[in-house]
Specification:
This protein is of the alpha+beta class. The protein contains 44 helices and 57 strands. Strands 42-43-44-45-49 form a five-stranded mixed sheet, covered by helices on one side. The chain is flat and about 145 Å long. The relative contact order is 0.04.
Length: 1511
């Protein structure tokens, strides 16, 4: 596995006669979706030694729809030019060296179906379209010619290699035409013989007709001649032409004679996997290649993907040789579309083939064996998973219904990919390998299926009998929980499979018995935690590596943490407020075990949060804790996050995939973006870190690509913002839009069912419950692919040739509507003619008995005869046959004879009415007859019941009426009149049926009105209606109405949650008020606090306080916000950046600025917040003390930092109020160290100037006992005070050079604390600190005449406090630990790299460049190590680490607990001041500083600065 990027490209487009081509020297291009991918083949590809010589080198991007044709210029000197045609109507000419469009034309009005760059004319490109129009385009003179030869669809065209004006064109109906473009497209020959599509045309590479020894009598068929088009201008020398057709034959034609001279019938080859019945017309694409160096041979494709080499001089029966016979599995498994010859730089003759099996194969023409295969993807890359057992095995879940397993470590083959399609039959949306069972891969699909593959066997997968109702989002292996864990040890598996589906359910499957039922874990969660309210819709599941903790992500953005064995809920994280797409736990094998408690999560919001769950998990709380503060926040992406993956090689390094089209690597502990990958042309769906190579990541997207990329080679460090982001979006939008596929004409006989699946993906998504887990959104996958065994005739479904140009379907309902509309339009076609007539007739009343009336208006003779017949009938005594016949003929006489004849007359009249389309008149006649029941039955059968008829139904009896009303309701449903149907059902007291009918057709409002009016209030149907409607409204974003529904269903908790979903301040406030009203105190408090925090971002202090007022328990937070408001006002007055704000709305009490700050705070607390008594202060203190915020980093946003600092300051002021000075000192120290950790020196100084204006003496007096546990904290506080003063003095000395002072301060902002190194490996940051100190000095001339004030003198003499030997020693040990850990991590990386190089058998020359790039990855320590060339052995490192840890363990807890400024840094600053103002720093102090530097300054960070002062 060489250290180079790699691409798994999209599949070459299907059913195009020429959409791939190659040029000598080794460049091959193929059209895939809307672009052309370029592959360098041969020695120039720069592939690793021993691997096949080819590499995907780039992409031509510019078309907006499917590329239908691609051709290179085959003229020496311009091999860099090529042309492509597309369904967007353009032909573009490209330069492959710059990957840019040279020129383009859009001359065609119809879909372009064929394209060729003339091999004789340097700048001529010929193209043809579906309506038979041909355009010749001359590139150099930008000129074109329009030719229209035949009004038929062109399938392929090829320009003659011998005569510059001749072009052969093949049509859809089997006609082949040779035309002369110089004579305005005059037809030279019309070759008839094929009776189906022409797929390929190849000219013989040699001119003349001497190369084939054809005895014409033997081979030509007398009936094949060229019909009308007798050659008026026969070609002087002639040339042979070969054509391949869907009619299963290849024909060789003579151009001099204009007739066929040979027919080759494709053989039916018996392939492994069962014989094919020759009577079944199998799917076929017949493409040809006539090798230039072997004119007596012809290569063709065959039925199932085989390639044949025909010998045209052999007259005996078996005249072909099969490619790739030496070993099994070399051939394509599906039909081949294109064959491209390629001559490499080392003069090997190769042939490249593209096929429906989504492989590109390269054949060696000398041996007819397959040299290499480039696999490709026919759908979105949804999921990536590296096997934990079979290292380097990467499984890819793809939208084309296949799973790929890529052995990324293969030495012989860069693209060693196996495909698995059996039993999948749908988009593969999630994958998960079994943690310790080899080859066991779980997969989930778009249609809710969960299955298990054994990738080492060829058996079909086991499929779980329990399906999800929607897409499977995530799979995870975890320990069994009840009821599955209840069996004995041997009766149950050690790990079961968990799947989370789009309907919001998590199922537990037993891998031993997938046929058994899977369990919904919601039941266990309900029972264990006795939850009454509606459980959230789950969208993600993730198990911690030790299998003891499970995290569930939900649609409302919450994450719940459960503990095995019974899934006890121990914690809820309310951080994201949109659907959670991905959760990832940090690995357990880092150098800091506590990092395994880190959990990163991403949602439909662009921010990633990392939480540290160590305390929660270890404390195991009785009742669930709610966390609302993240440990780290990673902001930068501009669209939703779809996948997160921790690096297995580093501590705290994370990669994220996002819909903004990029993948981002983060250092989470420092909240720092490291590098950004922008290679995809679509939205990223998955990402995985190579388990073997620290500098290698794989990512997949909806551009049908998987890229392997190297973080160290990326140009950008963070995701694109603003304009760049828009450009990226444009690049993405140049991707194809999803389109319904156009059905092939009936000529391509095929079952259409498969095609329905392949259309747009929108049906499945628009109605999905939660938007799909990073997989949603319409997608036009080129999935017209049926993963059936290639040999089964059933698989011969058809793929549409090209998408219809139309706008994307807007919703899933559209498709079904289409069929109804079609039926209706069929019915409507005839009636319109009658409409005007009908309108005229309406003016006269239509006769009820029109036929009788007509018969009474005949000639006089006929009427006289009627009278005679009637008289005979009335007066004859016995029945007379003649009379009966006469009466039958003259049925209108029934009016005057007996009832039976009248009935006959009514029957005939009725039939007439029906035939003329007047059923209502027929019904009236039947009513006259008294046959009401019959009328109703006939009308019901014909769907012609009316309100009128149903209203009369009671006359026929009660049961007939009931039946009629039900039949009418059914009829109304067919006519989409559901509300009217429900009303009729209510008329016969079928209330439940009416409600169900309305509900199932989404008339929720009406259904609820009916149910509420007619059912008992406690009827469960009513609650179910409210909940169902609420869910739908919630999904569509109508949160307020959804909340009303939940309130109607007495599910107030859910109502508050759904209102809060929008996440803006107004919604949160309403939700909080609602929760208060319904008594959900805890929820109300958390929502009110969230609302206040939202308002904090806009500095709307007044409303923030009003929101906090909603809940009594937030009194403490009100005090924090009050202090924060006063502090912000104070900073704003001092014009500090932290306080700047354009539209802050302050309270009137915040405007008062007289008096000391702390007094102002306490006064306002008393007057405004009624905080009078010590008990109140104590209560507020205890409440606030339970809230713990994470420590700060350089990247903590300033608003968040200020809030956290004010929280600590509020605790300090409260404890002063109750005279709890110990607590006050600790809280102040926390505030100070927080600002120190974040590098925000300004805030630190402000805290001191406000709270300790006269230094720390005041507090020392209050503390009294110097041996109390707080003494250490006090000393730290005092040390930070002195540290700040020290810098103030130094900067005051530097004032004359303002630039340098600004510079120092800017550097200083990056100064993190060393104490944090327990938590963060921040040795590299420490190195910069002394540098700032020493480098600042030379830029300022020594100010010898500067005098220091007395205060400064006092500070300098007090600085001894900073030179704490104990702290210096502790910090030195901590630095050693951090350095050793970094070196160890580096050694592991180097070791893995060398193992990798061995396994891939790379030569020594390959290793060198890898080592060169390494320092860019490694930390500064390792660079230093390389500079000094000090190889350190592993035992030596381990010994150092043990000793340092032992030293740290010996220090008293009081010193380790409280942070302290970096002692060596203070020494350096003091010595600087001493050098700038000699005499002001006593000799004793300087000596002490130098001794400390000598003793502890031996780490790499300080060594070179110590030499400056200590020599």
């Amino acid at each position: 596995m060489g250290q180079e990027p790699r691409t798994l490209p999209p599949s070459p487009n299907w059913y195009c006669s020429r959409c791939s081509d190659a040029v000598p020297g080794g460049l091959f291009g193929f059209a895939a979706r809307t672009s052309v991918f370029l592959v360098r083949v041969g020695p120039g590809a720069g592939a690793s030694p021993g691997t096949p010589p080819f590499r995907v080198v780039g992409e031509l991007v510019g078309h907006s729809e499917r590329v239908s044709g691609f051709t290179f210029s085959h003229h020496p000197g311009q091999y860099n030019l090529c042309a492509s045609s597309s369904d967007d109507g353009t032909v573009k000419i490209w330069d492959v060296e710059t990957r840019a469009v040279v020129t383009e034309h859009a001359l065609h009005q119809h879909t372009i179906s064929a394209l060729h760059w003339s091999p004789r004319v340097k700048d001529l490109i010929v193209s043809g379209d579906e309506k038979g129009v041909v355009f010749c385009y001359w590139l150099n003179r930008n000129d074109s010619q329009h030719l229209f030869i035949e009004p038929r669809a062109i399938f392929c065209l090829t320009c003659s290699p011998h005569h510059e004006d001749l072009v052969a064109i093949g049509y859809k109906d089997g006609i082949v035409v040779i035309m002369d473009i110089s004579k305005k497209g005059e037809v030279i020959h019309r070759l008839r013989g094929h009776d189906d599509e022409i797929h390929s045309i190849a000219w013989c590479p040699l001119p003349g007709e001497d190369c084939l020894s054809l005895s014409q009598e033997e081979n030509s068929e007398p009936d094949i001649h060229n019909g009308k088009g007798v050659a008026q201008t026969p070609l002087s020398k002639g040339c042979y032409l070969a054509t391949g057709s869907k009619d299963q034959t290849i024909r060789i034609w003579s151009c001099s004679r204009g007739r066929g001279v040979m027919i080759l019938k494709l053989p039916f080859l018996k392939r492994r996997g069962g014989g094919i019945d020759p009577t079944v017309k199998e799917r076929l694409w017949l493409t040809l290649h006539w090798p230039s160096n072997q004119p007596t041979q012809l290569v063709s494709s065959c039925f199932g993907g085989e390639l044949l080499l025909w010998d045209l001089n052999q007259s005996w029966r078996r005249r072909y040789t099969l490619f790739g016979t030496s070993s099994e599995g070399q051939n394509h498994s599906r039909i081949v579309f294109n064959l491209c010859p390629l001559q490499t730089e080392d003069d090997r003759q190769l042939l490249l083939s593209t096929s429906m099996d989504r492989d590109v194969k390269c054949w060696d023409m000398a041996t007819l064996e397959c040299s290499w295969t480039l696999p490709s993807l026919g759908g979105f890359a949804y999921s990536l998973a590296f096997s934990p057992v079979d290292t380097g095995c990467l499984a890819i879940g793809v939208g084309d219904g296949m799973i790929r397993v890529w052995n990324t470590l293969s030495i012989k083959n860069n693209y060693d990919v196996k495909s698995f399609w059996q039993g999948v039959k749908s988009k593969v949306t999630s994958l998960c390998w079994h943690p310790n069972k080899e080859g066991c891969l779980a997969f989930g699909t778009d249609d809710g299926k969960v299955g298990l593959y054994d990738t080492y066997s060829s058996k079909p997968p086991q499929i779980s009998s329990t399906y999800h109702k929607k897409t499977v989002y995530t799979l995870a292996w975890g320990p069994p929980v009840p009821p599955m864990s209840l069996g004995g040890e041997g009766d149950r598996p050690s790990l079961t499979l968990y799947s989370c589906g789009g309907e919001g359910i998590v199922l537990q499957h037993n891998p031993w018995k997938l046929s058994g039922e899977a369990f919904d874990i919601n039941k266990l969660i309900r029972d264990t935690n006795s939850i009454k309210y509606k459980l959230p819709v789950h969208t993600e599941i993730s198990w911690k590596a030790d299998g003891k903790i499970m995290a569930l992500g939900n649609e409302d953005g919450s994450i719940e943490i459960f503990q095995v064995p019974n899934l006890k809920l121990i914690c809820t994280i309310q951080q994201h407020h949109k659907l959670v797409n991905t959760i990832s736990w940090h690995h357990e094998h880092g150098s800091q075990p506590e990092l395994s408690y880190l959990m990163a999560s991403g949602s439909n919001n662009a921010v990633i949060y990392v939480h540290n769950l160590k305390t929660v998990i270890e404390n195991n709380p009785e009742s669930p804790v709610t966390i609302t503060e993240p440990y780290r926040t990673l902001s930068g992406h501009t669209a939703k996050i779809t996948r997160l993956a921790w690096s297995p090689h580093h501590d705290g390094r994370l990669v994220s995939a996002s819909y903004d089209g990029t993948a981002q690597v983060w250092d989470t502990l420092r909240e720092e973006p490291l590098c950004n990958f922008r290679g995809h042309r679509g939205r990223l769906l998955c990402v995985a870190w190579s388990p073997l190579d620290p500098d290698c990541i794989y990512s997949g997207a909806d551009d049908f690509c998987v890229y392997k990329w190297l973080p160290s080679m990326q140009d950008h460090s963070r995701p694109p913002q603003g304009k760049k982001s828009i450009e990226l979006e444009k690049k993405r939008l140049s991707q194809p839009k999803p389109k319904p596929k156009k059905k092939k004409k009936p000529t391509m006989r095929a079952p259409v069912k498969q095609e329905m699946l392949d259309g747009t993906e929108e049906e499945s998504k628009d109605n999905s419950d939660p938007v799909e887990n990073g997989v949603s959104d319409a997608e036009g996958e080129e999935d017209a692919q049926d993963p059936e065994p290639p040999c089964s005739p059933a698989s011969a479904s058809v793929v549409s040739r090209e998408p219809v140009v139309c706008t994307a379907v807007s919703s899933g309902v559209e498709k079904s509507k289409g069929s109804i509309i079609n039926k209706m339009s069929l019915l409507k076609k005839e009636p319109p003619k009658e409409k005007p007539e009908a309108l005229i007739k309406k003016r006269k009343a239509r006769s009820m008995l029109p036929l009788s009336t007509n018969l009474d208006h005949r000639s006089k003779e006929e009427l006289h005869h009627d009278c005679l017949v009637l008289a005979t009938a009335k007066h004859s005594k016995e029945p007379n046959e003649d009379v009966s016949a006469d009466l039958e003929e003259r049925f209108h006489l029934g009016l005057f004879t007996d009832r039976a004849t009248l009935y006959k007359m009514i029957e005939i009249e009725g039939k007439g009415h029906l035939e003329n389309g007047h059923p209502e008149l027929f019904h009236q006649l039947m009513l006259w007859k008294g046959d009401l029941k019959g009328v109703l039955q006939t009308a019901a059968e014909r769907g012609e019941l009316t309100d009128n008829l149903v209203a009369m139904a009671p006359a026929a009896g009660y049961h007939v009426w009931l039946w009629a009303v039900e039949a009418f309701a059914k009829q109304l449903c067919f006519q989409d009149q559901y509300v009217k149907a429900a009303s009729h059902l209510l008329s016969i007291h079928k209330v439940y049926e009416a409600v169900e009918l309305l509900k199932s057709n989404h008339f929720y409002r009406e259904a609820i009105a009916v149910a509420k009016a007619r059912l008992r209030p406690e009827d469960p149907v009513l609650k179910d209606l409210y909940l169902s409607w609420g869910t739908i409204l919630e999904r569509d974003g109508h949160y307020a109405v959804a909340a009303k529904c939940y309130l109607g269903a007495t599910s107030a908790y859910d109502a508050a949650k759904v209102l809060a979903k929008k996440g803006d301040a107004a919604s949160l406030r309403t939700a909080a008020e609602l929760a208060t009203i319904v008594g959900e105190e805890e929820l109300s408090a958390s929502l009110a606090l969230r609302c206040a925090q939202e308002l904090l971002l806009t500095k709307n202090w007044v409303e923030a306080q009003e929101a906090l007022q909603l809940h009594q328990s937030l009194q403490g937070q009100r005090l924090v916000f009050c202090l924060l408001e006063l502090l912000s006002r104070h900073l704003e007055e001092k014009q500090l950046p932290e306080g700047k704000s354009s539209s802050a709305s302050y309270h009137t009490w915040a405007e008062v600025t007289e008096g000391p700050f702390v007094e102002r705070v306490t006064t306002i607390w008393k007057t405004i917040f009624s905080l009078d008594t010590q008990e109140q202060c104590q209560a507020a203190f205890e409440k606030l003390q339970t809230i713990k915020y994470p420590s700060a980093t350089n990247n903590t946003p300033s608003k968040q930092l200020l809030l956290h600092i004010c929280h600590d300051l509020t605790l300090a002021v409260l404890s002063q109020q109750v005279a709890s000075w110990d607590e006050a000192v600790q809280a102040l120290l926390r505030a100070v160290s927080r600002s120190y950790d974040s590098g925000n020196f300004t805030i630190m100084q402000e805290v001191y100037s406000i709270f300790l204006p006269d230094g720390c003496d005041y507090l020392r007096d209050k503390l009294g006992d110097l041996h109390s546990p707080t003494t250490a904290a006090f000393k730290s506080l005092e040390a930070f005070f002195l540290y700040g003063c020290l810098y103030d003095i130094w900067w005051a000395l530097s004032r004359p050079c303002p630039r340098s002072s600004i510079w120092v301060r800017a550097c200083h902002r990056r100064m993190p604390s060393v104490e944090q190194s327990q938590e963060v490996e921040n040795a590299s940051a420490e190195e910069t600190d002394p540098e700032t100190a020493s480098q600042a000095e030379p830029s300022k001339p020594p100010q010898l005449d500067v005098k220091l004030s007395e205060a400064s003198e006092r500070v300098l003499s007090a600085c001894k406090e900073l030179f704490s030997e104990k702290h210096a020693s502790l910090q030195d040990s901590q630095r050693t630990v951090a350095e050793v850990q970094e070196t160890l991590a580096e050694m592991i990386r180097q070791h893995q790299k060398s193992q990798l190089c061995k396994s891939t058998a790379n030569g020594p020359d390959k290793d060198e460049p890898e080592q060169e790039t390494e320092p860019s990855l490694s930390s500064p320590q390792s660079q230093c190590k390389e500079e000094k060339n000090e190889p350190v052995s592993l035992p030596e490192l381990t010994k150092r680490l043990t000793e340092a840890n032992a030293r740290i363990a010996k220090f008293p807890e009081s010193i380790k607990t409280w942070p302290f400024p970096d002692v060596l840094e203070c020494c350096l600053v003091l010595l600087h001041i001493g050098s700038q103002c000699p005499g002001h720093v006593t000799q004793e102090v300087q000596q002490q500083a130098q001794e400390l530097l000598k003793k502890y300054g031996n780490t790499k960070a300080y060594k070179r600065y110590c030499q400056t002062f200590c020599t």
